[in-house]
Structure formats: C-alpha cells, structure tokens
Specification:
- By secondary structure, this protein is an all-alpha fold.
- The protein has four domains: 1-47, no CATH class; 54-152 and 159-271, MFS general substrate transporter like domains (Growth Hormone, Chain: A); 286-361, no CATH class; 366-595 and 603-618, Growth Hormone, Chain: A, CATH 1.20.1250.
- Helix content is 60%, strand content 3%.
- Strands 1-2 form a two-stranded parallel ribbon.
- α4 packs antiparallel against α8 and α16 (444-476) packs antiparallel against α19 (567-591).
- The longest helix is centred in the middle third of the chain and has 35 residues, at 202-236.
- Keywords: Membrane, Transmembrane, Transmembrane helix.
C-alpha cells in the first residue's frame, strides 16, 4: 500500500499522522473513494474568514474631523476672550495650526509609505492626537494655565492681562501635538480602508465603493457635529467639557480600530513618490556635465519583462509602469537617464529610467496650476478667523433667548457646499454639455477657475459687510465689548461664496491632480493637493503679519477691537490679490495641455483612485 499517493478527507493533522496526504472533500476527484470507511468522515475545518471589515478607520476619521474642526472654528474666540491675545495674533495661531495639520499629512504619508505602513501610522498618530487634545483639555481647565479675567471699569471692558509665555507654551504644545496626530492619521485612514478590498474581485470592488460612501458620510457627520454640537458645548458648558469629550471619543475610536486588527489585510510598503523625484533630481545633477545624446532612444528606459539594473527594481514593478514618450521640456532632467556605465549596477540615485524622468516632468508641468490655486485657501482661512471675530461683535440672537455661537456660523459654509454639489450635477453639467459639447460638463481647470472667481466675490462681500458693520457701530455709539445692533446673518453671503467656491475648487483640484499625475506617482496627487491647502493657510498668516506690522502704528487694519480697525481694507487687499492671481491662473490654464489618454475619462473618480487622492480631507 503506497500511502504517499493516497488522500485522506479528514482533518489535516489526523491525515498526516497516518502518513496520508490531506485533501479537502470538495477538492477530491469524483471517483475517489475515502479510505478508513470504518471511521465517520468529518468535514474539514473551515479557514478563518478573510472578509474585510466594513468600515475600518471610519470612527477614527469621524473623531478627527470632530476634534480638528471643532478646535479650529472656535479657537480664535478662546484666544481673544480668554487668553487675551490680539486679533491678528489669534488669526495667525489658527491658520498656522491648520496649515501645520495639512503639511504634516505629507510627512505622515511619507512615513506610512516608506517605514511604518498605514496600520501602525494610524495607531501611533491617533495616540499622539489623543495626547494633544488631553493636554488642551487640561490647559483650558486649570486656572493656572490661563490669565485672570478682565477687570470691569465703568460698565465696559477694563484691563486685560495677556497670557504669559508659559501659559501660551502649554496651549501651543497641545495644538501642535494635535496637528501632528491629525496629519499622521489623516494621511493613511482612507488608504488603509482601500487596502482591505481586492479591486480584481467584483464583489469586493462594489463593497469598496460602499466603504467610501460611508467614509465620506462620517467625514460630513464629524464636520457637522463640530460646528454645531461641539461649538455649543464649548460656549455654554465650557471648553474643558468640549475638548474632554473629544479626547474620550478619540480614545474610544482607537480602541475600536485596534479591535479589528486580526481581520485587517496588510500590504507591503510601496515607497514614496517623493523618493523618486529626489532620485531623478540627484541623478541629473550628478551627470550635469555629461552631454545628452541626440537620439533619445539611447537614454535608459524600462524594459518590460526584464529586471531593471537599478537597485531595488523588479520585473513586477517594471510591468506596472507604462512607457511615457519623451518630451523636450525640462531637458536638464534627461541627464538622469544617461547610462554612463552600462556594465555596472547603478543605484536609483545614479541612474533613472526615462519613464521616471518623464513622470517627474509631468509633475513639474502641473506646478503653475498648483501655485495659482493657493490663494483660494488663503480666502478660505478667513472664514475660520476674522469672519468668526466679526460674528462675535454682531447680534447673534434667534428669538429672545437662543444665541448662535460665533463658531457655528460655519454651518452656512457647510450648507452651501451641500447645496452647490447637486446644483452643479443637475443644472451646470447639462447646460455646459450643450454649450461646449463636453459630455462631462466642465473640465477640471474650468471648475477651479469658477472657484477662484467665487473667492473674489466672497472677499468683496466681506468688505462691503464690514463697511456697513462699522457704520452701524459708529452711528449707534456702542460701548467697547457690546454687540453691534446688526444681525449676524449679514455674514452669510461670504460664507456661501467660499463654500460654493470650495465645491468647485476642491473637486476640480482633486480631479485635475488625480488625472494628470502619472500612473506610477498616483499618491503624488495627494501631496500636490494638500500642499495648496497648507500653503494657503501659511500665506494668510504671512499677509496678516505684514499688514499688521505696516498699519499697526497708525490706524490698524486689524485692531484688537474691530470697531476701531479697518478690516474691510484687508478684505479689499485679498480681493485684489485674488483678482491678480486669477489673471495668472487663466494664462497658466491656457498654456497647460492635458495629457493624452487621461484616466477616468468618464469624469468619475472611482474608489481606488479616491483612496490615493484623498487621504487627508479637510
């Protein structure tokens, strides 16, 4: 009896103990007769399911939105009213906090792609965010970590002691720990969710689309709760209660995320596209003195089916890339593809493929569009700073007893986004389709252009409303600290224009960077997009600093008491800068040529692409 050729339908361990090969019953040939018929046959144990969890990381993202937005939209009132910081400095604290959060998304993505992986990145940076919010809760609760209240004089606001350096230091430590955690986890949450699904499987691909629908639902839910419930709790129950609830919810979200560890799927590290860009630039610089060949076919390029000579390359990786035709722009970068030592084994820092070089060129061609979209987010930053400061000086009552928190006015901003998207889909797209013959309606660059126009209208509206507010304050002779007899709903137009502009600009940028980035650098679309948000906030900080320094000695544009300042001039300045930026953008958009064979020609952004392009929604 040759047991080595027989098969046993029982459990693997029992079969091997008897010297038989194991084969599950459903894999046996139809003619196979089980042996050991005197024993009852037992069906083999089913392997543990590998079905992906339905919404991995969604709770973490909801808590992140609730925390970050809840802090940002109401932070300026805490800085001015409790910490007694001036309006200009308070605005810069908020914009620097938000700018750092988005900039650290790039760092978090690099760490996740190159070192830790997305799972560990989410876990570690969520813990960092929780620690930052915990310190923030303590700083708002401990009396020694904030200055004493202002002393009343003559029925108005008297002397106010500014927060000390130590008190502000604790507050800034909490804010930037929160920003670090936010940037790290946001860069990986949606990408980790997409890792749980197999795109080649039709069922899992449909499940992935459902996951992203729920993921965006949790983002919207967190944003809505932040600007309504959380801001109300901060203003009426106290900031320690609001921030403490955020810290607790983050901890619960982390526990829920870790509880699903055994069911998660983990992918190997893919590396960061920033490394490829750096490698191409370094290789080109090293061979800057080598003459370029007249025949571009002499440049080194990928060879499908063969292992590339570059260190770390593989046949599989080469097959994933498609050759890109050579272009004559940015010829300096072609030096990176000169193979000066064919017999050697150069590293990627010494030799790059022509395809890698062309991918870097593609990114370089997108930079003019990238640069001219930054100003929109500078305008966006004003909705969380000076617009909130304006609201604190106006009548916010609805009825005799209820008063809208100043930070909750951003709900009109969110509402305008929700209103603009269906209007665009149902009205703008059909009309533009008939006018220009484009089946997709507007192109990504046209959407961005509309968003930039709306940003100009927003600043124009803000300036006109501020002129009216100052006139009412002057005519009414309101005392310092008293609200101006003018309803806060005058601010709705500027929130509406910025919200509608975001609906066009955000989607346009996402679509543009996603489609135009080369296939081998899809995650680079994320970096380009997020950097415009981050730089927009930092540009706002720089403009506020320069304007306040120039005008502060005379009649300041940005005064601690807005009734004594000329904030409308700052809004007019932003409107003028945005107008000049729009002109430059129009030239850049006219110069830019869409690449051939654009992916996603149906105008949609599928789940896989969205996972690469949107790990850091604001």
């Amino acid at each position: 009896k040759r047991r080595s050729t027989r098969f046993c339908p029982e459990y693997p361990r029992r079969c091997r103990a008897r010297g038989y090969k194991y084969r599950a019953r459903h894999l046996q040939p139809a003619t196979h007769t089980p042996i050991h018929t005197h024993r009852p046959t037992v069906a083999p144990r089913r392997p543990r399911t590998t079905d992906p969890p339905r919404r991995p990381g969604s709770m973490v993202e909801l808590n992140e939105r609730l925390t970050t937005l809840g802090i940002a939209v109401n932070l300026v009132t805490y800085l001015t009213a409790t910490m007694h910081v001036g309006n200009a400095e308070a605005a810069n604290v908020v914009t620097n906090f938000m700018g750092t959060s988005f900039m650290l998304c790039l760092l978090g993505g690099f760490v996740a792609d190159s070192f830790l992986g997305r799972y560990l990145t989410i876990a570690i940076f969520t813990a960092i965010q929780a620690s930052g919010v915990t310190i923030l809760t303590i700083s708002t609760a401990a009396p020694g970590l904030r200055p004493p209240a202002c002393t009343a004089e003559g029925g108005g606001i008297g002397t106010c002691s500014r927060a000390s350096g130590a008190q502000l230091g604790v507050l800034y430590l909490a804010l930037y720990l929160t920003a670090l955690g936010t940037g790290g986890l946001k860069s990986s949450v949606s990408g980790f969710g997409s890792d749980q699904f197999d795109e080649s499987d039709r069922t899992e691909k449909s499940q992935m689309m459902r996951f992203f629908n729920w993921f965006f639902f949790f983002i919207s839910l967190g944003s809505l709760l932040a600007v309504t419930v959380l801001v109300y709790v901060q203003d009426n129950l106290g900031r320690p209660w609001g921030y403490g609830a955020c810290a607790a919810s983050i901890a619960v979200g982390l526990v829920v995320f870790l509880a699903g560890t055994r069911r998660y799927r983990f992918k190997k590290l893919a590396g960061s596209p920033l490394t490829q860009i750096a490698a191409v630039v370094v290789a080109a610089w090293r061979k800057r003195g080598v003459q370029l060949p007249t025949d571009t076919s002499m440049l080194y390029d990928i060879d499908v089916g063969k292992v590339a000579a570059i260190e770390g390359a593989s046949t599989k990786k080469s097959k994933l890339k498609e050759r890109i035709p050579h272009t004559k722009q940015f010829r300096f970068l072609d030096h990176a593809a000169i193979n000066s030592d064919p017999a050697g084994e150069p590293t990627k820092w010494q030799l790059a493929t022509l395809t890698d070089v062309e991918e870097v060129k593609t990114v370089a061609r997108m930079l003019p569009i990238w640069a001219t979209t930054i100003m929109f987010w500078t305008v966006y930053a004003q909705m969380t700073t000076f617009s909130v400061s304006q609201a604190t000086t106006m009548d916010r009552h609805i009825g005799p007893s209820f008063q809208i928190p100043a930070g909750s006015l951003t709900v009109f901003f969110v509402g305008s986004i929700l209103l603009t998207v269906p209007i665009y889909d149902r009205i703008v797209v059909p009309v533009s389709r008939r006018l220009n013959g484009n089946p997709h309606g507007l192109t990504p660059l046209q959407r961005i252009g509309i968003g930039l126009v709306l940003s100009i209208l927003a600043m124009t509206s803000a300036a006109l409303v501020e002129v009216k507010r100052l006139r009412v304050a002057r005519d009414s002779a309101v005392p310092a600290g008293a609200p101006v007899p003018m309803t806060v709903f005058w601010l709705i137009p500027q929130f509406f224009f910025v919200g509608a502009g975001e609906a066009f600009t955000y989607i346009g940028q996402l679509d543009f960077f996603l489609r135009e980035c080369p296939k081998g650098m899809k995650t680079m679309s994320t970096g380009l997009f997020l950097s415009t948000l981050s730089l927009g906030f930092f540009v706002s900080s720089a403009l506020v600093t320069v304007v306040h320094k120039i005008t502060g000695d005379r009649r300041p544009w940005i005064a601690d008491d807005l009734n004594k300042g000329e904030l409308y001039k700052f809004y007019w300045l932003l409107a003028g800068v945005c107008l000049a930026n729009l002109v430059v953008y129009l030239f850049a958009a006219r110069w830019y040529k869409y690449k051939a064979g654009r992916p996603g020609a149906d105008g949609s952004v599928n789940g896989v692409e969205m996972a690469d392009a949107e790990p850091c929604l604001h």
